[in-house]
Write the structure tokens for this entry.
Amino acid sequence: LGIKIPIVLAPMGIAVGPKLTAAVCNAGGLGTIPLWRADIETLRRQIREVKSLTDKPFAVNLNLDFPQEERLEACLQERVPVISFFWGDPGELVSRAKAGGAIVMQTVGSAEEAKAAVRYGVDIVVAQGWEAGGHVWGTVATMALVPAVVDAVAPVPVVAAGGIADGRGLAAALALGASGAWIGTRFLASSEAAIHPHYRDRLLEASESDTVHLQDLFDLSWPDAPHRVLRNKTVTDWEVAGRPETGNRPGEGEIVAHSKSLGEILRYRCYTPGADVEGDIEALSMWAGQGVGLVKKLQPAAEIVHEVCDEASLILRRLGTTSGKAKSGISN
């Protein structure tokens, strides 16, 4: 990928814009900007803004649950160096992306999916564990998934995703055979993340047990897409009502907030609480992974990258020393 630090920024809706993407890139990691809903003009503008802020490689994330042929073509015309596919079978889009000069990443939830992705020609596999925040493709935990995927597709590089929020998680991912870590929730607490202050405060206050995995609750605008969020009033009211199906949920159809850029926001909409939203923020979908309990302070993105990297390096050096002493003891 041409990066110095094995950290990939997860594509987290409108929370990730050009500033956060470029900040991670400039710090040595790989920034990933999600543009799978953007119109072509906006997509081009945001790509060019990223390029104006960094000369380092970056990725554009495209969600395959929606048509992406035109967006992919525009990305290639703009010479995006890395394309990240998510949520489905990439098919011929992989060969088109590679023919256009891009490196291709694909997120998977099982070893079988990883092998299929490699058969399509994917260059890097992202193994997303069930602990991940936001939309979660698979059902296997990160600790079990990553080594299974590594074994299934070696020597293709694997990036570990799901519940990783500090240097201990990065070190663990490397120990499992991954080549790097995909980190999301920790970067929601970066000064460059474009999220509402209340959402950020809830993230900083949360523990590892404050998230909930849901099959299809915040489904407006993206149905049939399991996800993990912070437990909030919308989740609690729905649970108290007996977890009714769509059409019978409490407050369904109610306008709970308004965004200057997106307009009215209905309860149960798939929406990242942006900085420009007003209204009942607590009712919105507050995406977060189980690593949220490790996120305790607001920091610049570059500081997060370097802190995670330094902590992982220290752990790996310590483990290497411990391993050497253990081997010496055994041999004696």
Residues 301-331 form the longest helix (31 residues). The chain has a mean pLDDT of 95. The radius of gyration is 20 Å.
